[in-house]
Amino acid sequence: MRTPIGIASFVLLGLNVLAAAAQNPATVPVPIRAQDAIRAAASSFVDIVIGFAATDGTPLEAKLSVPAHAKGPVPVVFHLHGAGPMNYDTGVQYKDADGQIRTDRYYDFYARELASRGLAFFRMNKRGCSSDPSGRRAVDRSVFSKATPTVLLDDYAKALDALRGRKEIDARRIVLSASSEGTRLAPQLALRSPTRIVGIVLKSDQADNAHNTVVWQNSIGPWRNVQKLIPAAADGTLAKAEYDAAATRDPSLATRMPFATIDTDADGIVNAAEMARVVRPRLDAILKAVEARNDDFLWQALGNLSAAYLLDGWDGEPTSTMLLRLNVAIGVFHGEVDGTTRVEGVRETEAAFRAAGRTNLSVHVYPSHGHDLNWTPKTTGNGGPVPYQDAFRFAADLVRQR
């Protein structure tokens, strides 16, 4: 019999796997057109690996992708990663049309799309992060565990210094881009080193500090994921018949998230409050682990994070407060059913800007889109999902105005 924490972890694991199912190489063949686009990526830009040192002397690397036919310095987008051990390639596995499992570089998609708009693309390895020979992500835990938000911000600042010195880019036109965790750090980087930062692009905005984010992710977030996976739950409840219909379309649902594990009162209906009760033991265990500095538990439960990482931003101010200090254009692109960072935070940011009489914020919210903004390897052959296309267009418009 499962313990309460076991049930909670099982349910959340199932939700996470299902939410990421489109990136599962066992289930997602990439069509020929998408494969052709992936192969064509290398011909549209040139990669340059740049080494530099962190403040504490840790060697770091970044990658700059420049449009292949650039005839001089070009504007650049500097991207700050989401949470976890991320590197400048971020390999994604998929099955090709012949059934072979391949690993392609997620950030090549960014580089190709930005190059087509005349922009370079810059990103870095987080400390302790790299790729193994197959292209999959590799992490040195002893090094990466020291990458608190404060340390990451300093590493990003050093990377920005290195970027500004490159002859390939127009250092007068730099756009900061960020996803999830990075949306907390990008405004801090712009405030710390504002020279020639012309705007910020935030995807899947993390509006809250670490404590409030962890609590939301382990209370309301799982229900938001259910609504993403099963649109019939959009009205606030999920009936057994609606679940069964979804499981008929996607048989893995019955294994990943059996209805009985979330319908704890066996009344045939599940809602947000019931889901929160299911996952509450997990939330309690996480909060206890943070207090006890139980990094082994947190490494497994929270995608390779540590107590030091979480506590560094545990009680920080809302992201909107930082954004209000900026005078550059800001674009936010967020999914309505994001189960990792709450869309309500985006609306609160929008309201705060309106109350302050500020007009430098542009908000885009997408129905039926989750934290990944519905990106999959399949979508790369068509320019990516609409939120990505909008974000790339926003960045290109920013540099054209300068």
What would your notes on this structure say?
The chain is of the alpha/beta class and 402 residues long. The chain has one domain (4-400): Alpha/Beta hydrolase fold, catalytic domain (Rossmann fold). The protein contains 17 helices and 14 strands. The strands form four sheets. It has an eight-stranded mixed β-sheet with strand order 1-2-6-3-9-10-13-14, sandwiched between helices. It is globular. The N and C termini lie far apart (63 Å).
Task: Spell out the key features of this protein.
single chain, Rossmann fold, eight-stranded mixed sheet, 21% strand
Sum this structure up briefly.
The chain is an alpha/beta fold. It contains 17 helices and 14 strands.
Outline the secondary-structure elements:
Elements lengths: L3 H16 L12 H13 E9 L5 E9 L6 E7 L10 E5 L5 E5 H10 L4 E5 L4 E3 L5 E3 L1 H4 L4 H16 L4 E12 H12 L4 E9 L4 H8 L3 H9 L7 E3 H10 L2 H5 L2 H4 L6 E3 H21 L2 H7 L5 H6 L6 H5 L5 E7 L7 H13 L5 E6 L19 H15 L2
Parallel strand pairs: 3-6, 3-9, 9-10, 10-13, 13-14
Antiparallel strand pairs: 1-2, 2-6, 4-5, 7-8, 11-12
Helix pairs in contact: 1-8, 1-12, 2-3, 5-6
The tally of strands reads: 14
Helix amount: 40-55%
Spatial ordering of strands, largest sheet: 1-2-6-3-9-10-13-14
CATH 2nd-level architecture: 3-Layer(aba) Sandwich
Provide the β-strand percentage band: 15-25%
Write down the domain tally: 1
Largest sheet entry? 8 strands, mixed
